Fold these 3 entries.
Entry 1:
Amino acid sequence: MEHVVAAAVIDARGIVTGWSEGARLLTGHPADEAVGREAAELLVEDLSPLPAGAWARPVVVRHRDGHPVTLAVTACPVLGADGETTGWTLTAQRPPTPEPTLAGRAFQQASMSMSVFDPRQRYLRLNDVACKVMGVSEDVLLGRHFPQTVEDAEHSRGFNRHLRQVAETGRPVRYESWTGAPSLNREHAWSIEMWPVREDSGEVGGVALAAFDSTAQYLARQRLALLNEAAASIGTTLDVVRTAEEVVELLVPHFADFVSVDLLEWVLGPDEPPPVPDGEIVLRRVAHGSAHEGTPEAAVRLGDTDTHPPYSAPARALHQSRAVLSQAGEPDFMRWLAERNARAPEGRRYRRGVHSMISVPLRARGTTLGVLVGVRIAHPDDYEGDDAVFAEELASRAAVCIDNARRFARERTTALALQHSLLPRGLPGQAAVEIAHRYLPSGSTAGIGGDWFDVIPLSGSRVALVVGDVVGHGIPSSATMGRLCMAVRTLADVDLPPDELLTHLDDLVTHLAAYDDGADEVAELGATCLYAVYDPVSRHLTLAAAGHPAPAVVLPDGRAELVSMAPGPPLGVGGLPFEAVELELPEGAVVALYTDGLIEDRDRDVDRSTSELCSALTAPATSLDALCDSVLKAVLPEEPGDDVALLLARTRALGADRVAAWDVDPDPARVAATRQAASEQLTVWGLEEAAFVTELVVSELVTNAIRYGEPPIRLRLIRDRTLICEVSDGSSTSPHLRRAHAFDEGGRGLLLVAQLTQRWGSRQTDRGKTIWAEQSLEPQW
């Protein structure tokens, strides 16, 4: 149905002075017939006297062909300069009548907003929904230019631009917009389609549009987008607090104006999860955020605890294991808000307008970890059922990430504690080398590795330097590191040469793999180890490696270089021998043993890192500890990807004045002379107090070598932190301690040595064996 609006002007005498084309369409009278006539002549009934002011009422007009026409007339007085009424302007249109056709009623009653515009973007027709959206009746908008009916905003200009585009091109347009409307109190999502309406001639006579309110679908897509974003942005680190912060960053401001994450106390510690307590619940704030810098809305500071009474939404969410919605006006919600304001009154003005809250439990693998709280202040919509479904899904994903971080932190702490308990805490006192060391556990998500080192005192003032690396990370690697460390100590106690020790260690790893119940992988397989022995008397360093990087040596003149040696196969490979290398080092040389984490990384060249290591080792340093720090600072990247162990040893030497040696003829008669020579040497050293025990030890060991051993026989005394007596012979048969019976003539010598000395033992040599005994030089009371 065509809408026509008529306009007319009447002077104070009631004479028509103006007549519009619309008036002609409604009454049939052309302007030349109507202008100059009395208005009363055009009416079916007399309206006098007319009201003095504006008025609106139905008026029956006589059509030119004689039939009456009822019009809705609105009249406004026209005032002159003196304020007197000089006439009226009248507008008239047919009163609204029900659509005569089914198609017309379908248009008018459609559930979406529908409108029709002429090619100049003026309203021709609106349905009921369109009028509701615009907030005015259809007659107010008909004939008006669209930009005149809306605010001057980008979305309005875009709408008008699309109208012009369809009118000019004759092609339909479809697009989506997130905008407001004059009668709506917030923005909505609209799916808009515009298409041309053509005349019989094919020309575009107007533009029709249909706008569907797709806010629900738009918000659903936003929630899905947030869930997809959550998969990529939450859990990027295995850190509990950082994971909680990522949840907050995701939800503010799209889903909430304020978000907090509070966790139960045990989550941040090593304890196992207890049941959720009844009644009050104590939670610790680990993350919060809002649209305001500094989050002034928060009543609880980060790291503080908060006690939630049973009626509060967070406590109910934890007890019921589901999302709890709270709205302004509810008693419990108002109590919660009043408590927040009382606790932190300085943030009261930022909480003004709080109208909705959602509390969601954080549950992973059947365990409750804490609660996620979202609050809406500036956001116009209250939380509803769809928001609860979304929040529970997001909280479930976030809880799994938090639980993963918690488990990783607990395993890392356990592995680190295990590893530290196995690494040497206080290195044993010895005079062969000065020691400094550093161990840096990996900060990567792979966890703690199996790097280890050790310093083991050996007989004859010698010392063993050990460094190793176990494949893998975590508790299994730390446990494996402990097994290898203990195995090396046991083999070192037998005083095997480095190459033989690694051979025995390799056999041990192979046996462990064979008896590991058919497991696919054994942690020891592929482990590396470097074993070195330094003798301060000969100043020889003997070393062998099982797949481990060669150490670096810094000579007193400042030159630094890697030791040239065969690395050997990693432990557990078997079938290949280990080769030992022997060096003679000057006193004051520095030997640097390290694990591959110091020089190897996916983004670094090994040769360049090795060169940097040698250069850093030659840098001036006030102490060996300071040199450790400067090496790590110079060689390591900012975030190492693997564990790093560094062991520095500065060599010392025992000069000729601290060592005395004698060749002994294999004649029992020479025992007394040998004993006398040893006693005289103790007098030279000022150790007369040790002479009695030393004479007994020398007599027993030399006598046994003459009686049971083979030439050549040699006695050596070493004055170190202890007094060491060594007797060597050409026999490879090792003595053993036994209990002598009452009537036995022998068998008490070694027992006497064991009782009188601090410790004793034997070691195999290339020429036979050496029996040794150590005496403490500290006064005994």
Entry 2:
Amino acid sequence: MKLHLIDFLIIATYLLATVGIGLYYRKKSSQDKDSYMLGGRTLPWYKLGLSDASDMFDISGTMWMVSLCFVYGMKSIWIPWLWPVFNQVFLMMYLSRWLRRSGASTGAEWLATRFGQKGPGVGASHQVVIAFALLSCLGFLAYGFVGLGKFIEIFIPWELVKGYVPFAVSAQYVPHVYGIVFTLFAMFYSIVGGMHSIVLGDIIKYCIMTVACVAIAIIAYVNLQGHELAVPNGWFNPFFGWRLGLDWSKLIPEVNSKISSDGYSLFGIFFMMMAFKGIFASLAGPAPNYDMQKILSTRSPEDASKMSGFVSIILLPIRYALIIGLTILGLLYYHQMNLKAPDGSIDFERILPLTINNFLPAGLVGLVLTGLLGAFMGTFSGTVNAAQAYVVNDIYLKYVNPNASTSRIISMNYVVGVVVVAVGVLLGFLAKDVNTVLQFIVSALYGGYIASNVLKWHWWRFNATGFFVGMTTGIVAAAFFGFFIEAANLLYWFPLLFGISLAGSIIGTYLAPPTEAAVLHSFYKTVRPWGFWGPVLAEVQAQDPTFQPNRNFGRNMFNIVLGIIAQLCLTILPMYLLLSQHAPLAVVVVILVIVGFILKRTWWNRLSDD
């Protein structure tokens, strides 16, 4: 263990500060439901954007990305398209504005603006989106919990702790014990302080992480001078052909096994599947999690777009400075690290904690640990807040106690928060590793979500029954696929899963009459989506001949292409910088300047045009 007294003091100070933040905002968050769940919609967009970016800077994802960068080099910038990361670009360009115009508090409440309060399938559609939201939230809680435990175990070996613990723990459950301890801190400040404390906690954590990331980047850059990285041909090239083309057999043979188990050898096919899935997933809009809650918390639709755009700008360069910095140190000192997991297998997700533990000085270790613990706590608290919103707002207040007092609503939020955390921890005990949970969430569960949520924005005839049937068939099929198909292969089954869900959506739509005309008119005039809305547009213009439809599809798509290019440049810029790849770095900077200039004219200056 390399932790010194100063490291422990830094970590302890941060943990106590989170408790203080929760207590400080307890009164303010208790004013009413919106204040607790959405910060009263008074927080500026840049604070919410920083908070949202901070929530995405999680331990589990960062461990995964460092292992990807180590194995795949520059080609690793594409693999996060599994989420897909470029959904933030779609949100930035138009979808955040569409979502925020509803004025809803949750994704389930938003459905009332699209399908109305009554009619065939309305209740069922409401319930299925709640079920999906809770499933995804619990999945992310388990995902974060597993990664946190594996991370802490590297720094605090169980042998040093077990003498002070009045119970025996087998080796495989040691990470879970650590996970529970730090989960309790995250649970306290998020449940007590609501959205206000979550945002402030995220801002503090982001500042800590920025300092830590820059410090690690400098250390890695200094260590690399005069040395060459032992990597295979093609590692420095972000572009690829049908096959991955990386052969580690003469350097670290175990890496080839990792590539094979990931299922990325036929990288061209893998990329096409990611892009195909990613485009539809992005068109569907944000999933019902902390990202959606931050969008709904903004002051205006224009602020919602600004917030989503700000996320990539402040997240990617800092995060990838950390990722490439730790990758450089891991490659330079690979043979001095022990990547063996307790079961004897090589675990490349251990590169991040081992590198920090072995090659960073006292004080900086504590700062990095504090930032990454804060990253876990931010992701965890944001997810808990989203789950609370769905249970309290869309179940308790809608079906159990519609006239509940503010004090009763806040109390229910406390109770629900504790229960949600307990279930998420239990699922974490059942999960095999970070990548298994991740693959199920992004490839299976989200695969079942996409079809219905694309149609809800773009097709007037789509109704609540279609939404319910499409979501249900998608979720059931996703659960079936996730149970019988290996995690690494789930992506390749996405077209079938999408087809099943799409068929269910269309069949369900024609099992019931169209949504009430007044609801459709209100939604179309308020949200102003583009798509297949011809009959509704004709009816609206018959009532109001001055009404003009949204004709910005072409501009939105043009901006999205530019946004994805900029996002990739922001990702690879710190990688080229630390690896001293000067010519590619100059190209990336030039592209960023050109794209930024164009988007200032085609996006920023026209935020109110849609």
Entry 3:
Amino acid sequence: MKVQGSLTLERRPEAVSRVGPGRPQPLGATVDADGVNFSVFSEHATRVDLLLFDRCDAPRPARVIRLHPEQHRSFHFWHCHVAGLGPGQVYAYRIDGPRNTHHSGARFNHRKVLLDPYARANINSCWDRSHAIGSGDNVEHSMRSLVVDLDDYDWEGDRPLRTPMADTVIYEAHVSGLTASPTSHTAHPGTFSAVMEKIPELQRLGVTAVELLPVFDFDETQTLRIGPDGTPLRNYWGYDPYGFFAPHTGYCAEPHLAGHITEFRDMVKALHRAGIEVILDVVFNHTSEGNEYGPTISFRGAANEAYYHLWPQDRSRYMDFTGCGNAVNANHPMVTKFILECLEYWVTEHHVDGFRFDLASEMSRGPMGYEMAVPPALWAIELSQVLAETKIIAEPWDGGGLYQVGRFPGKRWAQWNGPFRDDVRRFVRGDAGLVGEIASRLGGSADLFFPQQVLPTNSINFVTCHDGFTLNDLVSYNHKHNHANGESNADGAHENFSWNCGVEGPTDSEEVERLRVRQIKNLLSVLMLSRGVPMLLAGDEFRNSQQGNNNAYCQDNETSWLDWDQAEKETEIRSFTERVIGLRKRFKTFRTPRFFTERHNERDVADVTWHGTQLFCPGWDDADARVLAATLGGFQGDPDLHLILNMYHLGLDFELPIIDGHTWHRVLDTACTGPRDLLAPGQEEPIEADVFHAHGRSVVLLVALPDEKDT
């Protein structure tokens, strides 16, 4: 198949011949030796037409095949087999049925052209969103689906990597934003191919997985609003999908339809060769069709009453637990099937290593929108044999007030740990009385996860993510600056637990800059030296800034694009980030997939003993406490460690415990400038005294090394 960048496609030369009954499973368009089998779910439809187009941009279909219930329907499924078709065929559906939206919720409209929900590729060259709204015919302005041959690719023996969760370090990135800036110096900025060019950077950093913001097809043409400077603002992040089985064509170096599948697979294969896993941020909580005033693209026109939560009193209206106009009814049997088959497809056909589920708590809501004790969709994912070794990560809340951190359904699900983010931000900026919370966060958040009988590796620890301030902005701004989003600075989180270190925004003050560098090191150190799975936001390693915008979802420009010139200039934080990730990998203590239990090692040192400035006095009940220390006993060949967190603004003396035959050596001190801030093995500096003076606002790590014996 050859498709040009103009998105025109000639039909394959074989003549379309006999139309057979086909089979109901699998859903979607499936190529075989004789042609293509088409199957679509629509329980209450009375008429289904399959539209076949000669070209991607053809204004009308070349052939319409009407599916007759007696021959082409099996219960909920409408299907047919068309001989003579093959990869490259452009197709879509028209579906008709009862129109009683108030009582049944059905929104059938035969005048609307619908995508196949299971399509492996979609075409938007004729798409005009406005024509998909209302009751008029939109065939000339519709999207279409494409038949794809998934077997025409050489994986060269590639398989998902299956890196243990305990050893995982996640790097959250936007496919386009990673390289869209001219400063990335990539051949095809903003694409899957360009991600491959940054693999050496990721290897040097030491991360083990990239978590990519949504790569499913989404409507990048939709103008959300006009910005204050007159620039149209669009959906940049991609959290508004319509094609769940299709890599987003906009992330392709060459927009050859179905070629986008090859480019995505090439990226996965290259990352795997470098030892880096691929985790996809997936959005199964809502779709691009929006509320009752939104466009009809696919799900709404085929089975609106199945795919979405509708108000019982008036089923013409959508429940909205997402803030995006609609909420997917994930626990309807057919929708659960759809979600599970989608995930299994990305694993089996694209070798994806894991998924992060946006607003995952919405998927635990039942038919009436209430929280379910045993939600079928989430348990189906947890128990799937195909997904058994795939990482599954929940954002354990939704836009409707459901908050499930520490009590998310299932045992295998890892969870974004919002309390970790908030507690660490507050503690590092100097808030008092948080030492108990910080002790829990350092140990894997046992207060949240131990009652659920899960592990520290169920906690995804993060200080920053795409949603909020960057790490640099967290120490540079007290307030969000989202005016460019065109919402009068009303969007985005109002409370960020940030501190600008004395000046709002950029500054020429060397004193303020030194403090900001130290605070960034403090945040990175706590993140990497805590049990659980750390996640780093792309660009934080070189102080990438969004100029105080904490909700850059619509900023497809320099605000969101990583500035790689900044990466060349910011050597201290970049080097520190690489080395603190290496420090985590050096000591198993920080990667142990179990909570502290005060068990003792062969040196009679407990796995954890908490202190303050004085030994054994951590100040749990001290409302003014801003310091915490911990002695961490090493197991399985690991040395004993002593961690000091001094978030008071002045330097303080911390008593050190005595370990017979060992002397404490300094490994990490964020008060030092690089490279003395983090010392390599063999370069640790001995501490001769029985106290250590920790500078104000600093993190220190000491290692107990055996004393040299007299010869």
